[in-house]
Design goal:
466 residues, nine-stranded mixed beta sheet, six-stranded mixed beta sheet, 23% strand
C-alpha cells in the first residue's frame, strides 16, 4: 500500500467504494487523513463501515471542512452531466481528484525521479501495459503494475528508485489526475469511444493528450501516429519541446520506431537500426499487437534497456488471458481464446491475424452485428454460431461462409476441433472471438474464456503451446 501523506491531518471525502475507492480510503487513513466514505450502493457503504471507516450521506453533510473529494472513475465528471457529488464539491470550492492524482502527489513528495510509466489509448492499453511490465521484470526492475488493468494504484508498493510503476489509465482516470506527470507517457491510438462520458471526440482526444503532455522534464512521450488525432498530438508536443518518439505500423518514419516485415526498426535521420523481431511470437500476432510491441519497445529503449534483453522479453511474453491467448494445440490445430473480442472491431484484430479459421462467434449481440467483418470472410473456413446472436450472424454470413448453428460453446468447440483436424491445413485455427457480449450465457468474458480454455484443454491429445 502507498500511504497518502499529502492530506495528513485533513478531512477527505471519498465517493465510490469499489476496489480503487476502498484502497484510497486505506491509503489516506494510513497517511494520517480523516476519511468520510460514501457510495450510492448501500452494500458498498456497509463494507466500508465494516473496514472501520466513517460513512455518511454526502448530500446532507457540511462540505466546509473537506480538503478534497476523491471520486471513483465510474462517476461522470463532466458528461452527460456531472455526478451530484461533483456539483456539491464545486459549490463548496473543493477539488475533485482521483486515486492516480494521489499517487502522483506522493511520488513528487517522496521519490520524484522514481520511474513511472503511464499508458493510454482507445485500444491495446492492457496488452501494452502487461508487455511493458513483463519487459521491466526481464530487465531486473522491481515492477509494480496496476491502474485500469486491475490492481488499484494505491494498493501497490510505494515509489522508489529501482522500482518502476507501470500504470494503465482510462480517459476517466486521466480526467481525475490534473497533475499527471509520468517519466514515460504512452498514447497508443485514438478512435471514437466513450463519447457518452466526454461529449465529443475532440474532448475525448484532449483528455487522452494530457497523459503525454504531462510527461515530466527529461521524460519521454511515446505516441502512435497511425491516426490523425495522434499525429496532431505528436506535432503539438514537439512544438512544446517534449521528447517525442513516434510509432507506426503502417508507414516508415523519418524519426521514431516503425514496423516493417515483422521487424521493429528505429529511425533517426538517415540512420536505420533493427530493434527487435516479432516473427514467430504467437502472443504478439497481428498488426494491432505489432503496434503494442513497438510502443513497449520504445518505452524499454527510453528506460535504457538493451536490445538483446528487449528481444528476450518479447519472445517470453505469455500474452494476456482471453486476448489472443493460445490455449492449446493438437496436431495441426491451434486453439485461440479471444473471448475479449466482444464487438466486431475487436474480433477484426483476431480474424486478421490468421489465414485458415474455424470461427466460434455469438453471444449477446451488439449494434451492427458482424456486417463490418465481410472483408475477413475469405479467411473463415467455417463458423460455429452460439447464443442469442446465432440467427442474426447466420443471416449475415449467408452463402459466403459455411456455418452451423452450434448453440452452446461446448458443442461449437467439439465441431470446430473435428472439422479443423480433418481439414489437413498446415495450421488450422479454432478461434473463439465472439464479436458479442457474453451476458446471454456467461456473466462476463473472463468466465466465457475460462470455459473455452477448460473445454479445449480437456480434449484428448491437446498439448500446451510453448
Amino acid at each position: 500500500m502507498i500511504p497518502v501523506t499529502s492530506f495528513a491531518g485533513r478531512t477527505v471525502a471519498v465517493f465510490g467504494l469499489g476496489g480503487s475507492g476502498l484502497a484510497s480510503c486505506h491509503a489516506l487513513k494510513a497517511g494520517g487523513a480523516e476519511v468520510i466514505a460514501a457510495d450510492d450502493s448501500a452494500d458498498n457503504v456497509a463494507k466500508a463501515a465494516q473496514a472501520g471507516f466513517t460513512t455518511a450521506d454526502l448530500r446532507t453533510v457540511s462540505w466546509a471542512n473537506f480538503a478534497a473529494l476523491i471520486l471513483t472513475p465510474g462517476a461522470p465528471l463532466t458528461h452527460p452531466a456531472p455526478h451530484w457529488s461533483v456539483l456539491k464539491a464545486r459549490d463548496a470550492g473543493v477539488e475533485v481528484i482521483g486515486d492516480v492524482e494521489l499517487f502522483c502527489r506522493e511520488r513528487r513528495r517522496h521519490a520524484p525521479n522514481a520511474p513511472f510509466v503511464a499508458i493510454t489509448g482507445t485500444n491495446g492499453k492492457s496488452t501494452t501495459t502487461a508487455l511493458i511490465a513483463h519487459l521491466m521484470k526481464v530487465a531486473g526492475y522491481d515492477t509494480q503494475m496496476g491502474g485500469n488493468i486491475g490492481t488499484a494504484i494505491l494498493s501497490l508498493e510505494p515509489p522508489r528508485m529501482g522500482r518502476v510503476h507501470v500504470i494503465e489509465m482510462s480517459s476517466y482516470q486521466i480526467d481525475l489526475a490534473p497533475s499527471l506527470d509520468p517519466s514515460v507517457g504512452i498514447l497508443i491510438n485514438i478512435s471514437e469511444d466513450h463519447i457518452d462520458r466526454h461529449g465529443t471526440l475532440t474532448h475525448y482526444a484532449a483528455v487522452k493528450e494530457r497523459l503525454v503532455a504531462g510527461v515530466q522534464q527529461g521524460g519521454t512521450a511515446i505516441v502512435g501516429v497511425d491516426d490523425g488525432w495522434c499525429r496532431d498530438i505528436a506535432d503539438r508536443l514537439d512544438r512544446t519541446g517534449k521528447r517525442v518518439v513516434r510509432i507506426s505500423v503502417k508507414n516508415p518514419l523519418p524519426d521514431g520506431l516503425y514496423v516493417e516485415h515483422e521487424t521493429i526498426v528505429r529511425a533517426s535521420g538517415a540512420a536505420r537500426s533493427e530493434v527487435a523481431r516479432l516473427g514467430g511470437i504467437g502472443s504478439l500476432r497481428g498488426l494491432h499487437n505489432a503496434q503494442n510491441a513497438a510502443c513497449a519497445s520504445a518505452c524499454s529503449l527510453a528506460m535504457g534497456i538493451a536490445t538483446d534483453v528487449l528481444q528476450n522479453g518479447l519472445r517470453s511474453f505469455p500474452g494476456l488471458a482471453h486476448r489472443m491467448e493460445q490455449v492449446g494445440r493438437r496436431g495441426n490445430v491451434l486453439f485461440v481464446n479471444d473471448s475479449k473480442g466482444t464487438n466486431a472491431d475487436a474480433a477484426a484484430h483476431a480474424l486478421s491475424s490468421f489465414a485458415d479459421i474455424f470461427w466460434i462467434a455469438g453471444g449477446k449481440p451488439k449494434a451492427g452485428g458482424i456486417t463490418g467483418l465481410t472483408g475477413y470472410f475469405p479467411r473463415i473456413r467455417k463458423a460455429y454460431l452460439i447464443g442469442e446472436a446465432a440467427a442474426e450472424f447466420s443471416g449475415t454470413l449467408g452463402d459466403r461462409v459455411a456455418h452451423e448453428m452450434s448453440g452452446t460453446l461446448d458443442v461449437a468447440i467439439a465441431s470446430a476441433a473435428r472439422d479443423a483436424e480433418a481439414s489437413g491445413l498446415a495450421e488450422a485455427v479454432v478461434l473463439l472471438s465472439p464479436a458479442c457480449a457474453s451476458f446471454d450465457q456467461y456473466r462476463n468474458f473472463e468466465i466465457r474464456g475460462t470455459a473455452f480454455r477448460d473445454i479445449v484443454q480437456a480434449l484428448p491429445g491437446v498439448k500446451p503451446v510453448v
